[in-house]
Amino acid sequence: MPADTLSLAGKTASVTGSGRETGIGAGISGALARDGASVAIHYVSEDSKARAEKAASNINKEFGTNITVVQGGMENYDSAKSMVEQILQAFSVDYTDIFVNNAAVARNTPLLKVKQEQLEHEFAVNVFGVECLKGAASSASSASSTSSPSPRKFWVHLLLYSATTAAMDALKMLWDRELGKSHRISVNTLAPDPVPTDLSKEYMVNPDGCPIALLVSMYAKIRAVNRIGTVEDLADATLLLVSEKSLWITVQLISVSGGITGTV
């Protein structure tokens, strides 16, 4: 009897916000491709096109799996529908097996200084956009797992972002209730602590290159290994959640943080 594996051979996956070749989304895409999935790399603006194509090229060269690149803003239903149609056509399939919601926006703004434009933009991308994309894809999805990196803590300078992730948690419970049994879908959330990428570097490192005081204090709270998290940690956790072996795990918020707890 052969050993069980986390093979995704024959599966198709869509990973939003995966157009930065050094980012979390690209890392997750690489892990899914490594285990055999065909993966759609997503980016939003023309400024990101070259990096998205590089991310796709890197994954294709390393793992030889089928990769496509799609562009679109998630907060618009027509755009979300177009993205889904592009993916299905590129892979010649009727549905995607795996949907990873990695795209998000956040601004470091004190709550009393948040303007209407920021409020609408963050909820549009982080909440409405994912619902638009899921709504556009749900009629064509028969087996899907959703894993979206989002904080389980309320970060003092990202309170609005934390509010959007709370809204997403509520939506995922709704997806599971209405689509879980009928479409064989599991819906889970990864909750990481800060992971260094080129996008997060400005929030995690001082001008002199040393980590900020908050990051230093986190080292003492880590219970697993003596280091902060990496893109690979999140990618491997996602791989576990989207495999057939995890269908009994659903509507869970799973900490990928080395055991750190509390509000920061």
From TrEMBL:
InterPro entries: NAD(P)-bd_dom_sf, SDR_fam
Domain of life, source organism: Eukaryota
Transmembrane domains' residue ranges: none
SUPFAM superfamilies (UniProt xref): NAD(P)-binding Rossmann-fold domains
One Gene Ontology MF term: oxidoreductase activity, acting on CH-OH group of donors
Keywords: Oxidoreductase
Family under the similarity heading: Belongs to the short-chain dehydrogenases/reductases (SDR) family.
Protein name, per record: Putative short-chain dehydrogenase
Native organism taxonomy: Eukaryota, Fungi, Dikarya, Ascomycota, Pezizomycotina
